Amino acid sequence: MTPPRHGYAPGDEPGTEIRPAADGETAGRHAVEAPVDVPEPVTAPEPAASAGVPAAPAARSLLGPAEIRDLAEMLGVNPTKKLGQNFVIDGNTVRRIVKVATVSPGDTVLEVGPGLGSLTLGLLEIGAAVVAVEIDDRLAEQLPLTVELMHPGAPLTVIRNDALKITELPGDPSRLVANLPYNVSVPVLLYLLEHFVSIRSGVVMVQAEVGERLAAPPGSKVYGSPSVKAAWYGAFRTAGKVSRQVFWPVPGVDSILVAFERSAQPLESEELRRATFALVDAAFQQRRKMLRQSLSLVLGDSSTATEVMTRAGIDPTERGEQLTVEDFLAIARAQLAGR
Where, in this chain's numbering, is S-adenosyl-L-methionine bound (predicted)? Predict the structure, then answer.
């Protein structure tokens, strides 16, 4: 069976799958769902409460704990630890994420999983335009109302769709800033980087173990297929942990910010990317074996794998965690040249 091209190779998954949902995320938010049209701009009628938005203090530009709870109650969203539903309720954390992402006025930012809108409002507060991808109909319908109340006329586009199925985005967003759904954070991140070359940088909040793996260097204990695949697109680094206390309810896992900058030029062609990722998946599926063994199914057999790696200048007795993305690319080049 061909390993998945994105995400974790079998045996390389993080040890825990419980996650805080993206701000306001409900269970199953990234199940397959047919694309639907982007809603027309919505202006919340007066009074605010009649528009289905809990009234907020006039000077507020971000949601606080009370507004988050009121919105969740109004929409029938009952966050539970069992379902991994956790909402960001701290404005300082929102502003910290926006600052780390170096968002500037006039930027067009892609946000995945906006939920109740905590981070969305933080991005709009700085003067950015936001393209928000939300799969949950209730949350997608509510978000423009919340934004119109807190930031009237702010440039927001809501796309009701699965982030793993979108094929085009309005405005060519240059940054990705998101509290990614933790159970699909790596596949979503890699999918967006593959399909939307306008995204040059960003900051994502993910499960701490996943974030450390994304940014891990070769030779690290947590270095794995996500590390190599992320490096294909650019430079990734951790940018600080996030306290569990900024979520409601308090989650059972730690969170971390991961910042990235895309490389100025693509590392190689799409054909070589696919070939490289197949090698990466095979190497980390059997990470304790030498590469001449773990890559034998992809390259033909152990003897052929040894020959290909020797041509590439890679020691066949090495293991996957010792190779850089450039090393895997060299093997892919040798593999394709020998066909």
Answer: 86, 88, 113, 134, 162, 179
Q: Which helix (H) or strand (E) holds 210?
A: helix 208-214
Q: Which CATH class is domain 48-262?
A: alpha beta
Annotated binding site: 86, 88, 113, 134, 162, 179
Tokens standing for 133? 């991808």
Fold adopted by 270-337: Helicase, Ruva Protein; domain 3 (1.10.8)
| CA gap 243, 86 in Å, rounded | 12
One DSSP character per residue, 252-285 reads SS-EEEEEEEE-SS-SS-HHHHHHHHHHHHHHHH
pTM of this structure: 0.82
Task: Write down the domain spans for the chain.
Answer: 48-262, 270-337
Model confidence pLDDT, tens digit, residues 39-94: 343 333 333 333 455 544 344 689 999 999 999 999 988 765 444 457 899 999 99
Binding-site sequence positions for S-adenosyl-L-methionine: 86, 88, 113, 134, 162, 179
